[in-house]
Amino acid sequence: MKISGTLLAGAALLVALLSGCTSTVNTVSRSDNIGAANTVSDKRVVTDYQLGKAISILQVSEGVVSGNLTKVQVRMASNKSRAMNVNYAFVWYDLNGMEVSSSSSGWKSIRFQGKEEKSISSIGPNPNAVDFVLKLQEAK
Amino acid sequence: MKIQNTLKKAFLAICAGVAAVFITGCQSTGTGGARYVDSQGTETIVSLDRINIQDWNNAANELVASLLTSGALERAPQQPAILAISRIINNTQQQVDTDSLVKKIRVDLNKTGKVVTTTTMGLGGRAEDPLAKSASEYAAFMNDDPAPPATMPHYSLSGKLLEDRARVGNKRQVTYSFQLSLTEVATGLAVWEDEKQITKQGKRASVGW
Q1: Which chain B residues contact residue A127 at CB under 8 A?
Q2: pLDDT tens-digit profile of B145-197?
Q3: Which of B4, B64, B83, B162 yields a CA-CA distance of 20 to 30 A from B197?
Q4: Which residues of chain A make contact with B64, given a CB cutoff of 8 A?
């Protein structure tokens, strides 16, 4: 009798803890989107398998802004039920494969709520920047 | 007995290996000595009482992206558009040089080829580059020109830095708002405006993020 009481209390505590950690996002959107993204076929290199499982890359798309600057957008979704931070950085390359730097580029942080979808984007630093690499890293 | 001893040795070997990996992994940060870190990387310090280098970078990057996406610069009468820097008000508790934000924006816009910034025209008649201004005036005087050929800017950039603080128990939160407006000089109308907010929360500053 004493053991079952302890077990019940433990189970209740576990449920409380689990529900405290879980906060997922529900969404509602148009069933058929009007906008159509210009998707980019991508190549992925996964070195952190935990992060690879936690974050799904749903779509990589590109466009042109301000006349001749390439813009890319990456839509991602968290597969975790709890909130998590992910760091990311875009690196741009020109037609010759040379890296194109900018003074304000670098790593940024994005926070996902549980099961949340988010998009990140970047604009090429100059009209010659045509290729990109997105780096992702789980935050500390 | 023999199996037990073998298992014990294997366990000890694994423990030693794991400890070695941890010690080696922590060696670079554990000594506390100064070292170089990437200014644009994730090992920089996150403070709750000041705008950090990554905050300036992120704000500038987002605001430049917003300005370029808006298409406002394409509507300038000539390309590249000429930009003048107006007043950037600092309403934070921190004493900052607003060039930490503005210079990054200027550099990034300049690299796109969409904008050039005038350095001989500034707020209150003060030139950022007095030598260029006086050389221009001197050349005009020597050539007997009535006035130096001042290039009027198409746009003026102004803005404000704001700070909001909140606290619950020993957890602190600070939000820095970076507000910018691009005004068309000919009409006096703001053709682009945006705000980037950065919020940091915690009990104390941390190394890395």
Answers
A1: 112-113
A2: 766 556 889 999 999 999 999 999 999 999 999 999 999 999 999 999 999 99
A3: B83
A4: 104, 123
**Taking the CA atoms of chain B, what radius of gyration do you get in angstroms?**
26
- Which residue, among A139, A140, A137, has the nearest Cα to A46 in the 3D structure? A137
> Which residues of chain A make contact with B38, given a CB cutoff of 8 A?
106
The H-or-E segment that residue A20 falls in is helix A2-21
- Which helix (H) or strand (E) segment holds residue B194: the answer is strand B189-202
Provide mean pLDDT across the span B192-205.
Answer: 97
> Are A106 and B54 a contacting pair at CB < 8 A?
yes
Q: In Å, how far is A123's CA from the nearest CA of chain B?
A: 6
- Is B155 within 8 Å of B188 (Cβ atoms)? no
- Per-residue pLDDT reduced to its tens digit, B12-33: 666 665 665 555 554 545 568 9
- Could you tell me the two tokens for A28? 């509602």
d(CA B121, CA B127): 5
